[in-house]
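Morning F.,

Quick status update on the modeling queue. The single chain you submitted on Monday has been processed. Sequence for confirmation:
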Amino acid sequence: MPLPVSRRQLLAASLSGVLLPTALRAADSTPADSPDQLTEAERTIPIVDTTDVLVCGGGPAGIATAISAARTGASVRILEAHGCLGGVWTSGMLSYVMDAEKPGLNAELPRRLKEMDAQRQSGPKNYVYDVESMKVLLEQMCDENKIRVQYHTRIVAVEKDASNRVRGVITESKSGRQAWRAGTVVDTTGDGDVGALAGCAWEFGRDQDCPCQPMSLMGIITASPEALQQFDRLKGGQTKDQFREFIQAAGRDPSYAKPTLWYMGGSVAAVMMNHEYGVQPFDAAAVTEATIRARRELYEIARALRSQGGLWKDCKLVTTAEQIGVRDGRRIKGRYFVTVDDVRLGARHEDAICRSEFSVDIHAATREANKKAAYHNDGVKAKPFDIPLRALIAQDVDGLMMAGRCISGDFFAHASYRVTGNAVAMGEAAGVASALAAKQACLPQDVAWKDVETELTRLRKPVG
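Structure tokens below.
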């Protein structure tokens, strides 16, 4: 009969992600349980699937990774924590895509949304979309490309071999604990969960702790079309300060000093009106409290607007996002580190996979700072800068790539490249590099750049 597994072994397994074999015998042992800890029983974990590319997170970067990998000929699986694809676009109800004037999927998505009568362009780089239409479109595109998806599934550990190569992940869901293996694993969780579980070095905020950028919970409100159009961000006739002043006149002072409304047509608008300060996205208790506070604030603002009567007499908060919007998460150490100097100088790289043209967008770290400026660039004037493929390849382990806001960079660079138009472009590159690595039976960093560039060019070729 096997001896009990020690707490030290269990902790090491959870950090390294090594699968615990059935007959593991403890080298040392500690008392089973105590008032402040529980020893988990050993278990055999079923391997559900082995695929070329395993995408952990089905948000903007994850969708782009999966579709590009599939279109490059790889078998692909997406594991998503929520009940739909799109991440911050859908379960986060962002409703607005920025810095998306880029070829490939960035051009395909708004075109297909427009065909569904679910998109409004806001200049060449940004657009508003209907959240439910986006959900349907992304699921349709996965079906078209034979991408397998599992919802309501969270990554809880990473499997690595003796050579420090990531071989797969372990998840928890209603199906229990399951294992998934792949040639390349791509961390598109936003918060860098997979990289952290794999033991990679990472940064967060301005240092390893807050001050960090605040979170915001998106909502949908209804009111008369005339009321909503009055403060529509896309219309250009009103400023965000006027919307804040109107909310203040109704008796509420929003925690975000630049509350924003995007008119969606009919009697519907998406709103971003709150900030939750100093919350670490990997602290579940703190995120829970932030979500509750934010939802209450949106509800109270909507009630205050309704109390104004007139065009606002029927104003209601219809729904809030399933997940609070996170601006600042872990940034996993990669084989290149994008810095503030890249931003200031407009860096160019031979292995450039996209160019960030967004400003350095730093939202106030405290409510007091928010009263002076809701957001700022801290004196960093951005020039369009390249993001190299190397920033998407993990440094501390093999077989792991990142895409989206968890790539390798500093606080200031992240404040520019974190918007979702860039996340899509990063995902395309991660998908191509991962698929080519599978075809060539090598690691992503060993794929020749010319091969990645050639395939990216093919995939991003304009349609029609």
